[in-house]
Description:
It is built from 9 helices and 8 strands. It is of the alpha/beta class. Strand 4, helix 5 (103-115) and strand 5 (120-126) form a beta-alpha-beta unit. The chain is globular, with a radius of gyration of 17 Å. The model has no long low-confidence stretch (mean pLDDT 97). It binds pyridoxal-5'-phosphate (PLP).
Amino acid sequence: MLNSISENIKKISFKLEEARIKYNRENDNIRIMAVTKTVSPDRINHAVEQGLNLLGENRVQEYLDKKSSYLPTAEVHFIGHLQSNKVKYIINSVKMIHSVDSIKLAEEINRLAASHGLTMDILAEVNIGGETSKSGLPPEQILDFAYNIAKFDNLRLCGLMTIPPPDNPEHYFEKMFRLYDDLRSERINNTAISILSMGMSSDYIEAIKHGSNIVRIGSGIFGARN
Length: 226
Ligand SMILES: *Cc1c(COP(=O)(O)O)cnc(C)c1O
């Protein structure tokens, strides 16, 4: 089991390097995130020991149950749907929240970040395919949202995150890059737009082609979830 995790990581790192060359991304820092939902801490730590120290957490309770077992070198980002009343459980142990999809949630993160004397890095989650089943802001609201977020002293908007519709993800990655590029060009005060979080096990190569710099990979590293 642990062997296959090492093999999977090697394979993904190799394909990522190939894609960097093919798509002219050699000078960009592209990070692989290990998405940990349903995976036991010993297997997660094995990935961390292979150098994959960026972890993506989906569920607050599951994260709280596992986090004390993680190696201290792990950097944890929260990527799942987050309710405002749960922010307090993760505020002082995650480095970035990828799934900010409302002003109300942003307000609560800002309030708790202030009370802990920290600035939280966040991404705005975009519902790029307009799917009713998915959370995220409509693309046409992103600029307004960014200007509103910029008013919060204890938040730093760092970019965008998405999960595209499963059919033709590449089309949506392309749209996401344009949205990201427009946002970056706005040069809004108190933002640091540098992260485009998109691409999962089945489509990370296409995401890299279109400018992703964090690919979030679960089953491709740890195997299929039950
Ligand atoms: C589960 C999950 C992933 C990874 O999905 P895989 O297909 O297993 O690679 C990425 N991002 C989010 C938000 C997820 O919930």
